[in-house]
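notes to self, project folder thing:

trying the whole complex as one job this time. last attempt i did each chain seperately and stitching them together was a nightmare. two parts in total, labels are on each line so i dont mix them up again. if this works i'll redo the older ones the same way
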Amino acid sequence: MKSEEEKVAIVGIGHSKFGKRMDVSINELGWEAIRPALQDAGITQKDVDFYSVGNFGYWSEEILPAVTIGEYAGLSCGSLKTEAACASGSASLKIAMDSILSGNGKIAMAIGIEKMYNSPNGTIIELIGRAGNYFWEFENFGMTFPGYYALYASRYLHDYNYREEDLCESAVKAHHYGALNPYAQFQKETTIEECMKSKYVSRPLKLMDSSPITDGAAAVILARGDVARKLTDTPIYIDGQGYATGTAYIGRRDGYTGLEASRRASEMALKKAGLEGIGNNFDLFEVHDCFTIAEVMAYEDVGLARRGEGIKLLKEHQTYRDGKFPVNLDGGLKSKGHPIGATGISQAVEITKQLRGEAEKGRQAEIRKGRALQHNVGGTGHYAYVTIYSRGD
Amino acid sequence: MKSEEEKVAIVGIGHSKFGKRMDVSINELGWEAIRPALQDAGITQKDVDFYSVGNFGYWSEEILPAVTIGEYAGLSCGSLKTEAACASGSASLKIAMDSILSGNGKIAMAIGIEKMYNSPNGTIIELIGRAGNYFWEFENFGMTFPGYYALYASRYLHDYNYREEDLCESAVKAHHYGALNPYAQFQKETTIEECMKSKYVSRPLKLMDSSPITDGAAAVILARGDVARKLTDTPIYIDGQGYATGTAYIGRRDGYTGLEASRRASEMALKKAGLEGIGNNFDLFEVHDCFTIAEVMAYEDVGLARRGEGIKLLKEHQTYRDGKFPVNLDGGLKSKGHPIGATGISQAVEITKQLRGEAEKGRQAEIRKGRALQHNVGGTGHYAYVTIYSRGD
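result (full assembly):
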């Protein structure tokens, strides 16, 4: 049994509106998340011992974003920027968490931010594509991220005998909840028909199978357990985090219907949290649905479904709010948006809201166990981070 | 008194040859540091619980360097990349250190790497310049890093009545020790005359006042105290680290003869290590001499000399090996080279070699107290990290 001094909890959350945000600089966008997080925790900038900024940002005008975002927000404690591709937010969370558990501070802030619309049109797809594997796959085959996930989708649909319509179930669910989330980029429902009619991006994946280009920021404030208890009546503890690094080469993957790094990270997280498996231990999940196929694979990699049976959960509405495993009740990357460096922190904000019982009407999960799981992938399985949260009831 | 389980120590070090390294890819360059570090620690890749990669890398072809470097080196545990400008190596060290002290692992690796010659000629100076402050100073005034430090040098020489020749004393010392370091980019001595005759880069700073463009990598393996004791007879403990974030705007600085962030980071590091000041507590120092003026300011910011008296230490040879405060016995950034993300880890490698008594002939300090201090600046005082090491005698 850990003492409160050996624990870490979220005591404040902030989230900007996601979308095309040409109205703000990257520093102003950061402040949209940092200010509410400070207010929520009831602290000031001087109380923060360290902050980390998750950001990919190869298209940014400011190339030391941690410094300029911090300065704009009035933070002058130690800081750094971290990048773990689309899992940069989870890496930022790890750094803030460890900076407390190490004894190096009592309060830390994990920020995630991305401003993707700044990049000249077209360039951004190329820059993201280079994150696959530049030397071999990008340069020689012109691979981009939709192309990578299309390979996985093709294999999955073939091996398990599903159709493109079935993948669209993920988009329909995402937009259903995105419509209820005021911070989401797309606040409107969609249908299987609309999804099927959308243009192919990389066959079999269509526009409506794909998460969008997004600007956005999110922030969480972490505190040592004993400090958290003084700051809030509803601390949300981080019970354990798992992580793994996968091969960058698509040709070296162990299969094309799941991500090996996700499986290893999930196992590590469950073990650290002292849990034997998914079972009935969780009230909700946040998974990395950068494409519809990614949500399906996540179900299977995390352990919500057996191999090849992920789509069934969707079709049976078992991952809707009132199903067995509620997943992405905020609209997910697909509908809420996917500002690369912000996504991992946005997931943490959503889980905190849900476990506190503060989610918007129509999308609040029933909280029985007081526990949730976050799954965040970088690249196409290059990085995986899985984090387990609880109310500590 | 901390138990061994509450401590962290360096148990393995590796360092590539610094210089223009067109003969290797970034992954191969990383392996040049990682392989000797693993061998030195007597462990294999599977023993590593987490690794962090300090890298700036806006000019890299591989934009997920932590993944590709790790894969090439056979590492598949969790990982991330971090950036704190020229202090990225120290940020990488913090992450690896905290990942152990947090209880999240027993062995971690901190890597620092940069491949700067990959950038098309000219581009790199512009890219580094953007790190000053893009929005205002770079875009409007065309500020580059030599320009920033030239402002500091002008003020310092004026306020304290020194001459350009006096700054050259720093370059002469750097090259004296660089000539004795087989890993250094420049292994040759220089003179005040040669320094004075070199071209102006940004008046009053000349080519010989400036650190070079460098490719290089360095790695350290950290272990929890009890594990370290089993792996080596000469663990080098990290006793404390301080850090601060400064304003990005040159116009908002509190003065132009020192860096406020360095002073705050030094105070924090000394406090964490349980020391009252510099006194006679240290056998050697590594300071961030990206320009000659930066070395002088570092002396004063860290506390080796009073304001305006740093150059006196140089002129009196008090920061040579046999002086009162031996500084940069590896040649420093000026002569050893300054591969941005690698520098902080290179400093840690040097301190470990020195405290073990393993430095090359002619540049080994006399170790009496068994303690050393590392000072690493990012940007022009945007970031500062100060780390204190000891043999734990």
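what i see at first glance: The mean pLDDT of chain B is 95.
need to look closer tmrw
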